[in-house]
Amino acid sequence: xxxRLNVPLGTIGxxxxxxxxxxxxxxxxxxxxxxxxxxRELDEAAYxxxxxxxxxxxxxxxxRTMRVxxxxxxxxxxxxGLIDACAEAMQSVLPSNRATKVQRQGCAEVKIxxxxxxxxxxxxxxxxxxxxxxxxxxWQQKIVGTHPWQFIRGLIHSDGCRITNWTTRVIGGxxxxxxxxxxxxxxxxADIIGFFTDALDRxxxxxxxxxxxxxxxNISVARKLSVALMDAHVGPKY
Length: 238
Known about the structure:
The chain is α+β, with helices and mostly antiparallel strands.
């Protein structure tokens, strides 16, 4: 048609584009579907883990120079396995986007951009998390209830640790050193602390509050059977 009418090929392409656009058939790259708005399948296990990382060490940024919001989770260089697990979870939750790692001083910033972030993480808002209410929506509560161990694992990987405690006991008349493993989770948000302890209750892990300060609260898991459960499903950072 361009040759027959002596019209530039680009003009023919523009006419076709305008015609298809009027019918809602405009070709080109479409925005990836949203699990919340469009019903796209969501990797719920990966989402439970990523949600916990976001609540601990993540934030969503969109400034005047950014067209698309970005989810960022900061992971210390001490745990390279955690960095990889975070990137894999991002990629599983948003398979049409690409997770990247930006090296910072002493840590890696794992990032992914998507227009769907505000739908997936409605807890985003101005100010620090511990200075505002954090409430899980009903669909998030369902996912966390279905995948509690992934959620617990993400919280431990963000704001928790597994350590070896020690004390002394008198055995056979002699004082001996006794060591035992213990999990800690520390956070300044009472709401996030509640999410953690509710998940522990759901899976049958015994816990207690320990060493609460003015700025943060510690949750301790020290019972032998409970530590064994945590070791089986969470384990130390790596």
